[in-house]
Amino acid sequence: MTFDRSVKIAPSILSADFANFGAECEAIEAQGADWVHVDVMDGHFVPNITFGPATCAAIRPHIKGVMDVHLMIAPVDPYIEAFATAGADIITAHVEAGPHIHRTVQAIRGAGAKAGVALNPGTPAESVEYLLDMVDLICVMTVNPGFGGQKFIQSQVEKVRKLRAMIGDRPVHIEIDGGVTADTAPRVVAAGADVLVAGSAVFKGGSVSNPAPYGDNIRAIRQAAAALAAE
Fold first, then answer.
1. Per DSSP, what are the bridge partners of residue 68?
2. Is 89 part of the annotated catalytic residue set?
3. Are 213 and 16 in contact (CB under 8 A)?
4. Concatenated DSSP letters for 46-102?
5. How does residue 151 score in pLDDT terms, banded at 50, 70 and 90?
6. Catalytic one among 34, 39, 42, 89?
7. Residue 14: closest CA among 115, 150, 173, 105
8. Which residue out of 42, 89, 136, 177 is catalytically annotated?
9. 214-229 pLDDT, tens digit each
């Protein structure tokens, strides 16, 4: 992975057809997705259960680009090595998931993956201030984690602005996860975000046998963000 601040669209396979993950990953990449986002939930840290390392390993051969794995689990440290071995390019852990986020970030990097840190809506930007020199990505949750299709929480835009100022010229991505649409994308990109996770907004209207709507949806989000940047 090389770092740049161009806007990247990372469809979340939480909204994909669970019976066709491999084909879905191939379809969204063919339709213009930059990254593939994998939401891992444990039914404990968040009120839902999704995938584990075996699923990541199974879809890895179907992903040509970046596999962005978001661990919404607690404890997180015991599972880092398994997700790295499964092929995760980026592993993101939550600040709130354990008592030693610095150690968690060290473990992710030690496993050979890029390190991300996620912040729930009620967690302030300042909680990652002393991690900025050792992370590659900060994920701002713009919904409460656990389910797809939720409404965007507007107050998080200011958090993105704060993080953008705190990061300065460091090579750290700001990722937005939750409620991203062609309407909300420009707001967070204007505030400083460069990676947009979108689930239902990408997958709506399409399927493996009819993937063209995926491309239309990805382009709509990208064009809305680009239009604002050009103003």
1. 37, 90
2. no
3. no
4. SS-B---HHHHHHHGGG-SSEEEEEEE-SS-GGGHHHHHHTT-SEEEEEGGG-S-HH
5. confident
6. 39
7. 150
8. 177
9. 999 999 999 999 876 5
